[in-house]
Amino acid sequence: MMPGERLARAGRIVVLLVMAILLAGQPAAAAGPIAHREVLANGIVLLVAERPAVPIVAVRAYSRAGAVLDPPDRAGLAGLTGSLLTRGTARRSGPELDSAIEFVGGSLEAAAGRDGMSVSLAVLKRDVALGLDLMAEVLLSPTFPEAEFKRKVAQTQAAIKRSEEDPGTVAGRALARLVFPGHPYATPAEGTVESVGRITRDDVVQFHRAQVRPDTTIIAVVGAVTVAEARREILARFGGWARPASPPPSVAEAAAGGPPKEERIKKDLTQATVMFGRQAIRQTDPDYFPLAVASYVLGGGSASRLYGRVRDEGGLAYAVYAYPNPARYGASFAVSAATRTAEVPKVIDIVRDEMARMGREPVGDRELTLAKDYLIGSFPLRLDTSGKVADFIVSVEQQGLGLDYADRYKERIARVTAADVQRVAAKFLAPNSYNRVVVGALP
Amino acid sequence: MRRFLGVIAMVVLLTTPAWAQSTDAVVATTLDNGLRVLLLEDHRSPIVSFQMWYRVGSRNERPGATGIAHFLEHMMFKGTPTYGPRQFAQLVEQNGGQDNAFTSQDVTSYYVNIAADKIDLVIDLEADRMQNLLLDAREINSEREVVIEERRTRTEDDPGGFLGEEVSALAFKNHAYGHPIIGWMEDLKRITPEEIRAFYQTYYVPNNATLVAVGAFKASDVLTKIRTRFGKIPKGAAPPAVLPVEPVQNGERRVVVKKEAQLPIVYLGYHVPNQQSADAPALELLSTILSSGRASRLYRRLVHERQLALEAGGDYSYFAFDPPLFWFWGTPMPGQTPETMEKALLEEMERLRNERVTDEELTRARNQTEAAFVFQEDSVHRRAALLARFELIGGYAGKDKFLERLRAVTPDDLQRVARAYFADDKKNVGVLIPRP
Question: For residues A344 and A442, what is the distance between their CA atoms, to the nearest angstrom?
């Protein structure tokens, strides 16, 4: 926001995709399980990773109560419910919660995304009891005060309105509509100004009561804490949380998308954002691993083909990247670039050409080795803080990949051949199968 | 992701200095050619963060060549005779590493985070590009277009970035903090390869650089390798000092811009001293009290209680080399006017001048600052960056004294500082009006 620092190279990954990429691009950890896992009597999956060196603790409580469960005319309900968890409990008002956690220099945040709702806690070790007390309160006994509800509705609507300023957000929303027609993933998790305006406080109370439940909840405790301590503290606060008699709701997998479409959105900007997208595959599909390699060769790093042709040689863009985006009920693959308005046709041609080339000819040995070595070798960097470890183990657990996923990923990536990459690319990177969105000052 | 993480790291660094562990374990030395070296062993993960910090940023640029420091930063990835264009990134990636760089008003910083057993490669790459950059004219002209696209993303098409540039330009009449880090578009189009080469030769010398590495290595071994590889690079002439001093501001200044946007934005900027002043710790605490968290003043009052703002905040750059601006901003909620937003921000300034902050506010700000430093210890990258920041403003050991300086601040100090710097006739105001 302020005149800050300028990075040489733009991020390749949009904020919302961080977890997807973490899974997409991640190989194996050191030997031994990455975390202790147990299932509590009420169904909570407890994950604990001990990292004793720094006296901090990061905790995540993730419930399968995401926007996919929003009623069709109430898009944004999960998001609103999540953001209201910290705005008042049976014991404390919202401002009291804020003061309590910030007085000890900690943080307690809650939010919902497409698949789940999560509460994130970061505290110094000495404050872990207080932090967990607050976390349990917001998860189990939020009161959703009327004044806070009204305030949050207005803030959410304003934030949605403002997000229309960001061409990447606008393009991403349009692309989701084209890629996932008829599925909840087509609708933005935060909802629209209109849909959020229709939500009542009673909707929020009901959503929390029905959807935030122990048998779809994962709690990850990472940091200066032992498994025994974590188990004791979590049981003391969440052990009595009753599991509902009814089974958790089921959500349909995304059906295959229709024929690819193009959407053009006019905005008075100097640069145009181009996004390509289609449905793809999740990590449970063996072809996911060659696709991850293909993605990296195509547009994963600053040694990638798109970075080379579009940015390094062409001078056409600051940011250009390709990425798989797996989620619980469906997956997509996207390519994105932003270029000056006049060069949109040229960038589209290069992107299509490189996508087609991935399926037309095998990748060279050097490119293949680089991609695999990067995907395998960069793994420790992604797990170097307690917060990153907590996010990773929750993500692996909620996608049902198993805590040994990191090791399997490494093995699978190591086995990928040029022929695998070509075969999978021919299937999933064929440019004619892609939807396309362009946002900018179009003619 | 790189961009996202970079922004987060910056926000944390700039808003919440303080620490957990003393710097006693740092191995510090200066090579004969003037290269400053700080090494800290951290064996928790088998990785290293290797960072090169050059004392050059947009403050070292002259009018007509704004953006050249950042432009050169891009060119640092475009090859040497030994490692051709793009090889830096290729080598780092095939060794499982991640790298990036940023340019600020004061510094240009490069980092590689990588498996600790690959540190020799990084030492070699960084020493090589400190003295052997190709700076090929064709590559420069191609990268010029990339930088211009970056400017379009961050400034031309970003309402907040656009307004911030205008307010800086208004606030500084003489000092180079008045021009954008990324440079004015006209300069980006004009800057010549010869100017970039001269800039490189002037500032990319060992005596203008600080090397910081934190990670799973043996410091004595790494130091030997650094001496061998960097020690051969000749010392350069001392880069020219930055001479301009910003004159005292006489009267309020204001800029109003109309631009495609959904909501208005209001910025306020006040000239304040940097960390060399005894007032700096109070300013740092004021920044935390005003804008760190939902219990902070601006959030509590403007966002929560009065529901005037979608967001509101303030920021002080403790690590600035020269006196910076203390920034405040607010985005009015739909239906609220920028006039109301500005008035509300000014009322908070007035309140700071007229009433002492409470003990609870002060204690909370101290606790937040201390805790933030403990959290930073969890990442070798952030540990290294923090050492570098303190080293560049007078010595890495300043990290240990920082908390002490903060603890000494009283509510009276905060009030005195607010009165001294947040005067009504010293403000720089920027307003962005959305164009329908």
Answer: 9
Q: What pLDDT, in 10s, does the model give residues B86-116?
A: 899 999 999 999 999 999 999 999 999 999 9
CA A440, CA B6: separation in Å to the nearest integer? 26
Statement: residue B331 has pLDDT above 70: yes
Residue type at A158 in one-letter notation: A
Residues 155-174 of A with CB under 8 A from B: 155, 157-159, 161-162, 164-165, 167
What percent of chain B is predicted at pLDDT more than 90?
Answer: 92
**pLDDT (tens digit, 9 = 90+) per residue, A381-402?**
888 899 999 999 999 999 999 9
Residue B98: what residue type? Q
CB-based contact B142 A314, cutoff 8 Å: yes
How deeply is B24 buried, as exposed, middle or buried, from its count of CB atoms within 10 A (0-12, 13-18, 19+)? exposed
Say which CATH topology domain A33-238 has. Cytochrome Bc1 Complex; Chain A, domain 1 (3.30.830)
Do B63 and B137 sit in the same domain of this protein? yes
Q: A374 and B300: CB-CB below 8 Å?
A: no
Asked if B367 is an interface residue toward chain A (Cβ–Cβ < 8 A), one would say: yes
Residue B328 token pair: 């405040």
How many structural domains is chain B composed of?
2
Residue A12 has pLDDT above 50, yes or no: no
**Domain A262-440 sits in which CATH superfamily?**
Metalloenzyme, LuxS/M16 peptidase-like (3.30.830.10)
Q: Which of B86, B104, B374 sits opposite A56 (nearest CB)?
A: B374
* Residue A21 C-alpha, separation from nearest chain B C-alpha, in angstroms: 9
Report how far residue A144's alpha carbon sits from residue A149's, in angstroms, rounded to the nearest whole number: 6
Q: In this predicted model, what pLDDT tens digit does every residue of B421-431 receive, in sequence order?
A: 999 999 999 99
Q: Name the segment(s) of chain A with CATH classification 3.30.830.10.
A: 33-238, 262-440
Task: Measure the CA–CA gap between A13 and B67, rounded to whole angstroms.
Answer: 26
pLDDT tens per residue across span B4-36? 223 333 333 333 333 346 788 999 999 999 999
Contact B114, B96 (CB under 8 A): yes
Selected residue of B1, B113, B435 to mutate for chain A interface (largest A Cβ count, 10 A): B1
Instruction: In whole angstroms, give the CA distance from residue B44 to residue A3.
Output: 35
Q: Are the beta carbons of B399 and B222 closer than 8 angstroms?
A: no
Q: Is A228 in CB contact (< 8 Å) with chain B?
A: no
Helix (H) / strand (E) element for A437: namely strand A435-440
User: Does residue A108 belong to the interface with chain B, where contact is any CB pair within 8 Å?
Assistant: no
Whole-model pTM? 0.93
Question: Could you give the angle at the alpha carbon of A235 between the alpha carbons of A234 and A239, nearest 5°?
Answer: 120
ipTM over 0.95: no
Q: How many CA within 13 A on the CB side of residue A409?
A: 30
